[in-house]
DNA sequence: CTCTGCACCTGAAAGC
DNA sequence: TGCTTTCAGGTGCAGA
């Protein structure tokens, strides 16, 4: 599923295609996928598309919002007559006839445009929420994003203080600390910083914290520039595809020689239940 | 409070 | 080939 750069790529794709459209109808298959009342959104016009961390917020003219979390396999696909934009988990559904067995929600929009929420594993969701409810979620469950100017060494040290024995990988994956980071960009940032995913945060020096911030910004900005990571060979119907997968140095590179030419190899371990890729030679 | 591990779901890919 | 196991871009929560 998408991390910050992939979700931002979706936001950009949706922005040009659905803003100004009116929601004609909403159909969904499970209560888990669509949490809200369809009458709270039908008849309203889409006024904006925003992103924070890995969440997509579609703003409506009646002051309600559709908040999406795509989790691991969520996708948002817009079909405007013959033109199609697909983002999120890469799968054949980017091109498949829709709706299909993975379709959880169909939004019928004005001008014969359709927005599909597909999600194979059903972990993702769409909730109908007020601006205040969304603000409360951000306030409670999300910290700053690495690209925010407030994401400083002081900020990270304040978060680190109470959990000195946590390893850095899980620390950076914590959305209340580094919003928008996920498994790919965390592994890549740790490689860039030359720091082992297993390092306890109490053993990280101030210059290393700064290097971590710089590395996170570097890999996230690369992800944004390349339109995210598109594992496998999936290409969007509009001809574009994410390009970050060609620039990954450790994620899913198990067994390959270290990109730093240090003589080491990329190995895969499990940290906090997540596949973790790093060079045990030059990441310490 | 922190930490660990599993639960939530389904399918693709890798291993035997 | 075909069966079995592992893995998957993410949380959320019970129990220690």
UniProtKB/TrEMBL annotation:
<comment type="subunit">
    <text>Monomer.</text>
</comment>
<protein>
    <submittedName>
        <fullName>Formamidopyrimidine-DNA glycosidase</fullName>
        <ecNumber>3.2.2.23</ecNumber>
        <ecNumber>4.2.99.18</ecNumber>
    </submittedName>
</protein>
<keyword id="KW-0479">Metal-binding</keyword>
<dbReference type="GO" id="GO:0003684">
    <property type="term" value="F:damaged DNA binding"/>
</dbReference>
<feature type="domain" description="Formamidopyrimidine-DNA glycosylase catalytic">
    <location>
        <begin position="2"/>
        <end position="124"/>
    </location>
</feature>
<dbReference type="InterPro" id="IPR010663">
    <property type="entry name" value="Znf_FPG/IleRS"/>
</dbReference>
<dbReference type="InterPro" id="IPR015887">
    <property type="entry name" value="DNA_glyclase_Znf_dom_DNA_BS"/>
</dbReference>
<dbReference type="Pfam" id="PF01149">
    <property type="entry name" value="Fapy_DNA_glyco"/>
</dbReference>
<keyword id="KW-0234">DNA repair</keyword>
<keyword id="KW-0238">DNA-binding</keyword>
<feature type="domain" description="FPG-type">
    <location>
        <begin position="249"/>
        <end position="284"/>
    </location>
</feature>
<dbReference type="InterPro" id="IPR012319">
    <property type="entry name" value="FPG_cat"/>
</dbReference>
<dbReference type="InterPro" id="IPR035937">
    <property type="entry name" value="FPG_N"/>
</dbReference>
<keyword id="KW-0227">DNA damage</keyword>
<keyword id="KW-0378">Hydrolase</keyword>
<dbReference type="InterPro" id="IPR000214">
    <property type="entry name" value="Znf_DNA_glyclase/AP_lyase"/>
</dbReference>
<dbReference type="InterPro" id="IPR020629">
    <property type="entry name" value="FPG_Glyclase"/>
</dbReference>
<keyword id="KW-0862">Zinc</keyword>
<keyword id="KW-0326">Glycosidase</keyword>
<dbReference type="Pfam" id="PF06827">
    <property type="entry name" value="zf-FPG_IleRS"/>
</dbReference>
<dbReference type="InterPro" id="IPR015886">
    <property type="entry name" value="H2TH_FPG"/>
</dbReference>
<dbReference type="InterPro" id="IPR010979">
    <property type="entry name" value="Ribosomal_uS13-like_H2TH"/>
</dbReference>
<keyword id="KW-0511">Multifunctional enzyme</keyword>
<comment type="similarity">
    <text>Belongs to the FPG family.</text>
</comment>
<dbReference type="GO" id="GO:0008270">
    <property type="term" value="F:zinc ion binding"/>
</dbReference>
<keyword id="KW-0456">Lyase</keyword>
<dbReference type="GO" id="GO:0034039">
    <property type="term" value="F:8-oxo-7,8-dihydroguanine DNA N-glycosylase activity"/>
</dbReference>
<dbReference type="Pfam" id="PF06831">
    <property type="entry name" value="H2TH"/>
</dbReference>
<keyword id="KW-0863">Zinc-finger</keyword>
<dbReference type="GO" id="GO:0140078">
    <property type="term" value="F:class I DNA-(apurinic or apyrimidinic site) endonuclease activity"/>
</dbReference>
<dbReference type="GO" id="GO:0006284">
    <property type="term" value="P:base-excision repair"/>
</dbReference>
């Amino acid at each position: 599923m998408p991390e910050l750069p992939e979700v931002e790529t979706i936001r950009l794709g949706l922005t040009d295609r659905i803003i100004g459209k009116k929601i004609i109808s909403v159909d969904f298959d499970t209560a888990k996928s669509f949490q809200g009342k369809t009458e709270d959104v039908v008849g309203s016009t889409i006024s904006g598309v925003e992103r924070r961390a890995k969440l997509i917020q579609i703003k409506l003219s009646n002051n309600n919002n559709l908040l999406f979390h795509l989790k691991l396999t969520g996708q948002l696909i817009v079909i405007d007559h013959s033109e199609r934009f697909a983002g999120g988990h890469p799968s054949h559904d980017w091109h498949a006839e829709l709706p299909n067995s993975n379709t959880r929600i169909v939004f019928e929009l004005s001008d014969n445009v359709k927005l599909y929420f597909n999600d194979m594993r059903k972990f993702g969701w769409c909730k109908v929420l007020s601006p205040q409810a969304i603000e409360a979620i951000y306030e409670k469950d999300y910290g700053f994003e690495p690209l925010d100017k407030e994401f400083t060494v002081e900020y990270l040290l304040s978060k680190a203080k109470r959990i000195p024995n946590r390893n850095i990988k899980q620390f950076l994956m914590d959305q209340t600390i580094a919003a928008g980071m996920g498994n790919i960009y965390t592994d890549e940032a740790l490689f860039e910083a030359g720091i082992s995913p297993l390092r306890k945060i109490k053993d990280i020096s101030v210059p290393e914290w700064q290097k971590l911030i710089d590395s996170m910004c570097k890999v996230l900005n690369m992800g944004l520039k390349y339109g995210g990571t598109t594992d496998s060979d999936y290409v969007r119907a509009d001809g574009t595809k994410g390009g970050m997968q060609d620039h990954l140095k450790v994620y899913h590179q198990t067994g390959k020689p270290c990109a730093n030419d240090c003589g080491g190899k990329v190995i895969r371990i499990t940290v906090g239940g997540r596949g973790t890729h790093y060079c045990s030679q030059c990441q310490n």
